[in-house]
Design brief:
The chain is an alpha+beta fold. It has 3 domains: 189 residues, Immunoglobulins (Immunoglobulin-like, Sandwich); 106 residues, no CATH class; 239 residues, Rossmann fold (3-Layer(aba) Sandwich), CATH 3.40.50. Strands 3, 4, 7, 8, 9, 16 and 18 form a 7-stranded antiparallel sheet that branches. Strands 1, 23, 24, 25, 27 and 28 form a 6-stranded antiparallel sheet that branches. Strand 11 and strand 12 form a beta hairpin. The relative contact order is 0.19.
Length: 563
């Protein structure tokens, strides 16, 4: 048996690493196989079929006068994709995280049969790079009561982002662990005060320069420094905002790798679609904004597409609405820019919430009502399946509109939907494993890590050998002349103690076996080896192995300690 990497099919590595440590991967081919285990006669019974259709699933919340509608029928649902009405192929009601029988025609509901549980997965994401200490307090208090409602199949994770991802609580069903994590979160000082001081300093500088320039008018005013001040601040905000949105996208991907109904509660003061927009309006007025084009629209659109393609709903908490009068007095935010800032940052938040089927929570005095709505939407909804007449390209989403023929009933779902490819599903699984213990995968692989050693005399990096042992019986072999070949995609990634995550860079390997020996090798393990480079310290290494023909993916994690 031979294994070779196919560099022509391998994705290019990104040129930058936003995580807090550098990780480079070198995948080396291995030619040996482990001793034979019990084998079977004939080729592995794996058949890869290809159909030119796309099956899409929608989670639809039905309400009337603010209350859940529990007796909706399939024939009352109208689904339009791109303006075209499509038939509903699958229709089921989920009540209390359990699939219930629904009537197909008017009359009494059928008797309940076997109960199937749909787990609820919540991720509480605190944007601590921007939040102020007092903005989090009402949110944390409300989440304590929210967590108390959890059942045995419900899971949640608590994540704090302050420039890198800090997982306070991995996904767990333990209410005690989640409550402890919320208490520890209260003790962490967010960095919003520093960001606000930067804004105050820049706003004061442009106003002072405006006064000085007015005083010098008539004597030949020098070049306007306000443009430079605004441009420098806007560029800094653009870099930080893009980094935070990239981390948020990876965390949404991690949530997408979990099973069940998935919702993220995003606590943030929001972003300006054009960073520095508020400062520019203070300095020059509305009409001069185009010269400072540092837009984040592409990143925000990509975030929305990724959430809708993966079936993640985002409930957004506008932290600015959770301040009391005393908090506002303590804040250094300039009153002159408060209203302008609100109008600039809210559109991105409301769009993200509404377009993903989530809620926008903007007031502390109605937060408990908002959490009640969030719980209802995650617990009582309809699963609607449709089939597109053609294949949907990887990464593409299509607009969806769902309505009801019953008068007074309102249906709410995401604004677009897409098909998640096997490659994206494997990526989501890897991202999920970087944040928390991974969910169950399609098959088992083993990961062995060697002892770290210095990479060189003057390098701070450490290098460790890794080996993946993949059961060949789990792979799909296809005819290739007088041989049989299987192609696997391997991803090796790492996360350090500070939450810094390496980029995901999949590599493809071709495993080749003589046709006459395929049955003989079916019970053996194929070793794939390589090198991982890290900095000193403790890391968790995550590996995924995807069989390209079947799309089945295995994930495994191991600790790497190098003090």
């Amino acid at each position: 048996m031979a294994i070779r990497r196919d560099p022509a099919r391998s994705p290019r590595r990104p040129s930058s690493r936003p995580s807090s440590f550098a990780l480079a991967l070198v995948l080396l081919s291995a030619l040996a196989v482990r001793p034979a285990l019990p084998s079977f006669d004939g080729e592995p019974p794996r058949v890869q079929a290809s159909v030119d259709v796309t099956v899409l699933d929608l989670d639809v919340v039905a309400t009337k006068d603010g209350r859940s509608v529990t007796d909706l029928r399939r024939d009352e649902i109208v689904v339009r994709i791109g303006g075209r009405v499509l038939p509903v192929d699958l229709f089921a009601r989920i009540a209390g995280a359990q699939i219930s029988q629904v009537p197909t025609a008017p009359g009494p509901a059928p008797e309940a049969g076997d109960v199937t549980v749909v787990p609820r997965q919540f991720l509480f994401y605190f944007d601590d790079a921007r939040l102020l200490p007092w903005q989090r307090r009402p949110v944390i208090d409300g989440l304590r009561a929210f967590v108390d409602r959890f059942g045995p199949t419900d899971e949640a994770s608590i994540v704090s982002y302050d420039g890198s991802t800090n997982v306070l609580v991995p996904f767990t069903s333990s209410r005690e662990a989640l409550l402890d994590g919320l208490s520890r979160l209260e003790e962490i000082l967010p960095r919003g005060l520093a960001r606000e001081r930067e804004f105050r300093t820049a706003a004061s500088a442009v106003e002072q320069e405006a006064r000085l320039q007015t005083g010098r008018s008539g004597r030949g005013a020098p070049s306007d420094l306000r443009a430079t001040i605004v441009r420098n601040y806007s560029e800094q905000e653009r870099v930080r905002s893009r980094s935070s949105l990239a981390d948020l996208a990876r965390t949404i991907s991690a949530l997408a790798g979990r099973p069940g109904r998935r919702r993220m509660l995003l606590v943030t003061p929001g972003w300006e679609s054009t960073p520095g927009q508020t400062l520019a309006q203070i300095a020059f007025g509305v009409t001069s904004l185009r010269q400072f084009d540092t837009t984040l629209r592409r990143q925000l659109d990509e975030l929305l597409v990724a959430a809708n393609r993966s079936g993640v709903s985002v409930d957004v908490v506008d932290a600015m609405g959770f301040e009391g009068e005393l908090d506002v007095e303590l804040s250094e935010r300039r009153e002159a820019g408060a209203w302008v800032s609100t109008s600039n940052r809210r559109p991105a938040m409301t769009t993200l919430a509404e377009a993903t089927g989530g809620s926008f929570l903007e007031r502390a005095n109605s937060f408990s009502v908002g959490l009640e709505t969030l719980w209802r939407d995650a617990s009582d909804y309809y699963s609607v399946g449709i089939t597109l007449p053609g294949a949907l390209p990887d990464g593409k989403v299509v607009k969806v509109d769902v309505s009801c023929t019953r008068p007074g009933v309102l249906l709410r779902t995401r604004s677009s939907v897409g098909a998640r490819s096997d490659g994206q599903a494997a990526r989501d699984l890897a991202e999920s494993a970087l944040l928390s213990p991974p969910p169950a995968s399609a098959f088992r692989v083993r990961l062995t890590l060697g002892t770290p050693r210095p990479e060189g005399a003057f390098s701070r990096r450490r290098v460790s050998q890794w080996q993946l042992s993949v059961p060949s019986g789990e792979l799909t072999f296809a005819p290739d002349g007088d041989r049989r070949t299987a192609i696997v995609e391997v991803t090796i990634a790492a996360v350090d103690q500070a939450g810094g995550r390496s980029e995901l860079a999949p590599e493809r390997h071709t495993i080749s076996v003589p046709a006459a020996r395929l049955a003989e090798t079916a019970g053996r393990e194929v070793p794939i080896t390589g090198l991982v480079r890290t900095r000193p310290g403790s890391h968790r290494i995550v590996a995924t192995v995807r069989d390209l023909a079947s799309g089945r993916t295995a994930v495994v994690t191991e600790s790497l300690v190098d003090e």
